[in-house]
Structure formats: structure tokens, C-alpha cells
Amino acid sequence: MLTADTFGLVVDIHAHAHAPVDELVAHREEHSREQAFQLSVFGPESVSVNQRLFRDEWHRSLTDLQTRLRAMDRAGVDVQAVSVAPTQYFSWANEKLGDELAHLVNEHLAGLAAKSGGRLVAMAHVALQHPDRAADQLRDAVRNYGMRSVQIPSRAGNREFSDPALDVFWAAAEALGVLVFVHPWGCSLEQRLSSYYLGNVIGQPLETTIALSRLIFAGVLDRFPRLRICGAHGGGYLPVYLGRADHAYEVRPESRSMARRPSDYLRQLYVDSLVYRPSEVVALTRELGTDRVLLGTDYPFDMGVTDPLARLAETGLPPAELRRIAGSTAAELLDLKEKEQT
Questions:
Q1: Which residues pair with 17 in a beta bridge?
Q2: Mean pLDDT for each consecutive 10-residue tract of the chain (342 residues)?
Q3: What does residue 13 show for φ and ψ, rounded to 5 degrees?
Q4: Hey, what domains does the chain have and what are their CATH numbers?
């Protein structure tokens, strides 16, 4: 019989907070354009639902520490790695504003972690649309706050992950040994997915798939082999449909753009466990190994889960593998102390 002790230290790698920076962007034309774009991506019905949920439920969960800690206790989570809500990426910000936002967000998240009694660790925020500044911001987050991870969107403004301009950021992340958590916001398919919340249901995993695929096909993982990249939402569709990419690598010269077959790079990636069905978690472990799957809940949003350990237990995986997914791998990546083996 599985008990709480089965899982050891439980670390949620995918949890969000809201930073008090909205006043900095509220009256900017770029922010209004971004909101209009999100309306076209998700559609008026879903935007209305999200606004109501944010007002009535999510805002308190995103901002009140005690509410968060109680939810963690109910879920059996010992430690959350807390990242800013993706709605606060503000990827349109210029360098000056991007610097200010990164500083304020990181200061807020570090302060939240400091008040948590060791229950929270802060995940850095950077203005990835300015790669040189993002590298500096990441170094500052590590040096000033001891952060061991950073959350980034699936594109750097208008740049894809394959853009050589981002190499300065990848080099900094590799040298610092931080975990880079790729979490999209929005979807480039826009109106095609603007009904039924498909912009999130299909669009978010698709954006992660595109981002990780570009890292592979552009040879970024060849140039920076020690990069620690984790894809949200189970890595999107990438882990379970790489056979087609491998086939293209064999038959299409323009797809043979990296040193090895695409599927060989899965062992250089991490993904979170937010795929909902125990059988899908097992599928991830078959493709990547249990030491590459990290527990994620997407707290506090409704596309997340509140019972991560119950879902993990239903996989039927051996206790040693459950411990790795539940937290031992994340603890190593984030320099956390793990519970004593029981």
C-alpha cells in the first residue's frame, strides 16, 4: 500500500503567483494590443470565464500565502517552485521596462519564498525578448536571490528558440546550471482555436512542442549539451510523436540539421507530469525515463490538478520511480534537501 512516505519530498515544479506589477503596464498601448490579441486567441467566451475566475478564485490563490500553503497541504506537496503567471510575461516590453519588470517580479517571488518557511522556492523571470538583458537578469537572479530555475515563454517576443540571438541566454543558463522551464502563453494559430477553449486545450501544448522542436532541429542542444530544459504540460506532443521527426531526419536533407536523430535528444530534456491520465505519465516515462519527469500541478488554475499524488499512485510504477517523479529529481535540480528514505 502506498502512503505519503512512499513519495519522499514532494516538489511541484509548475505553480504560479501573481506579481504586483500591473500598474506599470496598465495604460500602455502595447498592453492593450496584447489583450486584443489574447481575445482573438481564446475568444470572448473563454476570456470572460477567465476574468471571472481570476476575480472570484484565482487572485486570492495567486497572492495569499496562507491560501497557497493550505492548498499544498491538501495536495501533499512539500515544496512549490513558484513562477510568475504567464499572463505577466509582457513580452512586448522594451529593454528599460523589461529590466524593471524582471527586477520587481524576482524580488516579489523571492520575498514570497522567504516568508514560506522553506515551502516555496522562487523561479526567476527574465525579459527573453531581449536575450542579452535576459542573460544578465538570470545571472542577477542567481547571484542576488539564489534562484535555481527560470521560467520562459515558448517564444522570445517574435524570435523562435532557433534564433542564434538567443545563444547568449542559453549559454548563461547552461553555465549557471539552472532549470529552464518552458511555459507558453497564447497560441500562434489564433482564431482557428478561439472556440471551446481550444487555444489552451490544444494551443498551449502545441506551442511547447514547437519550441522544443526548434531547440532540437536548430542544434541548440548540440551547442549547449548541459542545458536543463523542462517543457510544461508533458512537453506538449513532442515526446509521443517523435517517430515522424525521426523519419524526416532519415529522408529529408533539410531536416538533418542536428547531430543525431530527434528522438535521441529526449534524454536531454525534462517534462512535467501534467498530462492528466496515469497511462500518459507512464508513456512519458517510457520515452524519457522516470528521472526526466517532474511533478507539476499548474496551481491554481483549472487546467491543473489538485490531487497529483493520487494520480501518480495510479500509474502502478515502482516506489523508487514514484519518488523520482514526485520530487527527488526536482530536489536535485533545485538544490533542495530530500526527506530521509523510509
A1: 84
A2: 77 98 92 86 89 94 98 98 97 97 98 98 98 98 98 96 97 98 89 90 95 97 98 96 95 96 96 96 96 98 97 96 97 80 37
A3: -85, -10
A4: 8-333 (3.20.20.140)
